[in-house]
Amino acid sequence: QVQLVESGGGLVQAGGSLRISCAVSGLTTSRYGMGWFRQAPGKEREFVAAISRSGDNTEYTASVKGRFTIAGDNAKKTVFLQMNSLKPEDTAVYYCAARSTNTYSYTARRIGEYDYWGQGTQVTVSS
To answer: Residue of 15, 53, 86, 100 with fewest CB within 10 Å of its CB?
Structure first.
């Protein structure tokens, strides 16, 4: 049974940092591309960051580029999202996702490309 469990969310002041984690079980992370998405109240879920199966390629949505970093630890089967210089508009529920792929370097931005999802972790940035 595949499980993705996010943790590390919370309340932080604008300008602060937070690292959220996604613990993966039931699949071999080295065979999957991983991504982070977020959904703010009243808005659609949107792409935040992705890392390729190889771990060599990463991609970010424009609004977080230079502030967020996605990284994976295959040995610990965990994916991280380091978030710096947080802004109130970063407030959302953050979801981890995994996609089975034979392509080592591809990073996926679309929701439909992912096979498994976590339950989400709330990140709230106060002004």
So the answer is: 15
